[in-house]
Amino acid sequence: MKPLLQVDNVSQVYESGGLLRKSKMRAVRGVSLELHQGEVLAVVGESGCGKSTLARMILGLLPPTEGRVALAGRPIARRFAGRLETAKRLQMIFQDPFESINANQKVETVIGRPLQLHGAKGPVRGRVLELLRQVGLTPAEDYIDKYPSQLSGGQKQRVMIARALGIGPRVLIADEPTSMLDVSIGIDIMNLMLDLKRDHDLSLLWITHNLGSARYMSDRIVIMFGGQIVESGPTEEIIASPRHPYTEALLYASPDPWRKGAEPAGIEAADRAEKGLPEDGCRFRHRCPYAQADCALGEIPMDAAEPQRGVRCLYPLGGGAASASSIRIERKDFTG
Amino acid sequence: MATTRTDSRQRSGRGKLLAGTLILAFFAVVTLAASQLAPYPKNDIDFESWLAPSGAHLLGTDSYGQDVFSQLVYGTRTSFLVGILAGLITTVIGVLVGVTAGFYRRWVSDALMFLVDLLLIIPIMALMIILASYLPSMGLTSTILVIGLLSWLYMARSIRSQTLSERQRGYVEAARVAGMSNVSVMLREILPNLYPIILANLVSVTTQAVLAEAGLSFLGIGDPKNVSWGTILALAHANNAIMYDAWWWIVPPGLATALFCFGFILIGNGSLERYRYKRGAAQQL
Amino acid sequence: MSLLEVRDLQIEYSSARGPFNAVDGVSFSLERGEIFGLAGESGCGKSTTAYGIGRLLRGSARVVGGSIRFDGVELTGLSDAQFDTYRWARISIVLQSAMNNLNPVMKVKDQLTDAIFAHRKGVSRADALRQAAELMELVDLPKDRLERFPHELSGGMRQRVVIAMALALRPELIIMDEPTTALDVITQKGIIDKIIELKRTFGFSVLFITHDLPLMLEICDRVGVMYAGQMAEIATRERMLAGARHPYTQGLLRSFPSLTGPRVRLAGITGSTPDLVAPPQGCRFRDRCLHALPACGSVAPPVRSEEDGIVSCHLYAKEEMRHEAVAAGR
């Protein structure tokens, strides 16, 4: 099946400095990914790994230095004429609902204005009420005339989701939409997005630093490090048997008091960010407990020997699926 | 206790707005009905000079034998119109230039700000004097235009810097993602958020316009036949009213100027408080 | 005797809508060598409690009731000058953002020695520098970092410097307010491991504040969960891992997606926290509680002490209901 969203070898280079000494920062380095109809793909990485830059390029807010992004086979437009069309298919939920909502507009305007922009004729109040109900802000009449400062963080985020939903996109990009919220509110937002995804047959690109939320939301995961995708694969396989040493470190560093079994040796080395990231070779090698001399040489290719899985490592972990079972530990299910 | 404090703050927002509006409405009525309200015609010099206030001359007469009260009433018309219209012109240009320069980066912003900086080097009052003296006739319209067209520089600067910080905010990016064009992001998303700073500037440019008119008149550059609070003060000063203890010639135009400015400040502060209150800032802990 | 004994602590804030108790009758104790966690969501009063103990309250906040006994001495009655003999020397503090702890225009070396000079009179400069180098070694930072300015260090290294500073005078209690929240998980893991190791070496106690309950359960011996200014439950780590007692804690635990076990839909907690200016009668959690009883609406929940914890909930008032509730929590 043809992917709905196709990101093809996209790079972003920021240049800074004057005429004589220009310095280049390669924030995203040749990222390719595909998002299929009805799929949830999680992009996981720590701050500065390039995941938010990638999102802005996909949305057309930032022109890629190299590569191309296509939505349903058509390139993402950067000029205004195409922006409206892009917006119709591709919407974004932002990290900080306190910032992304215009404090000056009532809820009706926040949700209603994009509706008018995208061709709604006549009064949109009824449609706005309907959208509020869909995102669980009921009774909707109580919310529609409020200003954002009268809403909690979780309610603001729901309004922003309603706004995106109203435009009727096929792809939603969510950039850590729960990280500013309390956990019990955040999980509600995640559930809401999963429900909306199911009901509206949306595809979802879930950007996060939290492997736990990635697992909760996604069908597939790509792990980003230093502007590159270092590992990709089906969610449960990645969680059960990470093949890239960075993914392993990320997994074992994520707090989970119910996890049993010894942690892999050398994980603490991943915390050593003394030298900064190397430009050539494997970008993780200074922090990698398994690094060898040849990790410094040349560009490390993405190895896709296994179907559905890719890993950018000369010495991937596990070697095969056999080691997966040693990490997979059942814990007592506290959720009842 | 703290609750009542909020209530009173809210009320005072409304109260300030009302008081300011009443003051400005008062001046507006005086402006419109000047010929009915003034007991004597404009520039009538048929009276004895230096008369102290009395029933016939509520605010006495000046050294030329003009009725000060009548002068003040006619002067209101000039000062009020200059303040409101020059203030509006200034605000429109200041907002237009400031928002555009703040929103569009690179050459648009650079070019506009270069122009502003260039003009800011020249002392505005001096420029006004030169312009005013070159104009064939210095009527009320030219006064308004000279003041209005030359006072927007600082306002443009402050609006630009606020726009610069607003355009970095998340809601601007969210609006783009929703598919809005630059013009609608600027006018419908950013501009309403600039309301408080525009308001603060509006208050100050209006009061400055009144003072600038007074200054020009004081220097004898305004229309000699036109009376304004500024010309009254200028004449009083030129004729050593203080030495004659003729307080009735100095205090009323001074008070009128102050009251007019105060009315604007009240409206500004009051509507700012109402603006914040309506958007729920007061409901937050 | 416990190192720290907090009884019925009340901390008041004033707001535009009136005064309210951000901390309303909180009690707990902290043993020597123990890591005690204060968990809860934003606005629950966990940081305010810690700041009240460390005398770091700002703005309108002030302690209006209760007692804080540290090593047998009542701290609430002390003047600021008297409290200064405790500050840093016996109770030190690590804040969330390392930049809030560090002076951006001073070298790491000078900040560490300043902390030593301020509280240890008559220490020579050479001595202080030697101590600073030792502190750097304790937190696994190379000595050449002493010559750096804070902005030249990564976030994780800065937080290590802050921990070194907190250790400078070998305090008995270190208050840590979300010390790793701003860091990436791998960096966080390194710092958490370091804290546990240092605690084993020096035997200090830690009051650890975070909203991240799984993280807390990885490092704390005991955990107190706060809700709307009150202590909902205190339990040992083992107790929490086996199943929390209080419905709020249960809900909180159900809000963290996990990396182990089957993938199940998590329920979270519906509703929002009550208004503290006019808190509801009875149990403050009842509107969001899945097990609310009629009594919860009118009577403040009784506090029940057990071997492995304390819970403040009507469900545990009677023996037979207790078993049901515990079962529900699993």
Mean pLDDT of chain C: 90
State the CATH class of the largest domain in chain C.
Alpha Beta
Order of helices and strands of chain B: HHHHHHHHHHHH
> Helix tally of chain B?
12
Q: Indicate the mean pLDDT of chain B.
A: 83
Total DSSP helices of chain C: 11
How many distinct beta strands of chain C? 12
Q: In terms of per-residue confidence, which ranges of chain C show pLDDT below 50 for 5 or more consecutive residues?
A: none
CATH-defined superfamily of the largest domain in chain C: P-loop containing nucleotide triphosphate hydrolases
CATH architecture of the largest domain in chain C: 3-Layer(aba) Sandwich
What low-confidence regions of chain B span 5 or more consecutive residues with pLDDT below 50?
1-6
- What's the oligomerization state? heterotrimer
Topology-level CATH name of the largest domain in chain C: Rossmann fold
Percentage of β-strand residues of chain B: under 5%
Could you give the order of strands across the largest sheet of chain C?
6-7-8-3-9-10-12-11
List keywords for this structure.
heterotrimer, A: 336 residues, alpha/beta, Rossmann fold, 2 domains, 7-stranded mixed sheet, 4-stranded antiparallel sheet, globular, disordered C terminus, B: 285 residues, mainly alpha, MetI-like fold, 73% helix, 0% strand, elongated, disordered N terminus
Question: What's the structural blueprint in terms of helices and strands?
Answer:
The complex is a heterotrimer of chains A (336), B (285) and C (330).
Chain A: E1 5-17, E2 22-35, E3 40-44, H1 51-58, E4 66-71, E5 74-75, H2 80-89, E6 90-93, H3 97-100, H4 107-117, H5 125-134, H6 140-143, H7 153-167, E7 171-175, H8 183-200, E8 203-208, H9 211-217, E9 220-225, E10 228-234, H10 235-240, H11 245-253, E11 310-311, H12 324-327
Helix pairs in contact in A: 4-7, 5-7, 7-8
Chain B: H1 2-32, H2 34-37, H3 68-103, H4 106-121, H5 124-134, H6 140-150, H7 153-166, H8 170-177, H9 182-193, H10 195-218, H11 229-238, H12 247-278
Chain C: E1 4-15, E2 18-30, E3 35-39, H1 46-54, E4 62-70, E5 73-74, H2 80-83, E6 91-94, H3 98-101, H4 108-119, H5 125-138, H6 155-167, E7 173-177, H7 185-202, E8 205-209, H8 213-219, E9 222-227, E10 230-236, H9 237-242, H10 247-253, E11 303-306, E12 309-312, H11 319-329
Parallel strand pairs in C: 3-8, 3-9, 6-7, 7-8
Antiparallel strand pairs in C: 1-2, 1-4, 4-5, 9-10, 10-12, 11-12
Helix pairs in contact in C: 4-5, 5-6, 6-7
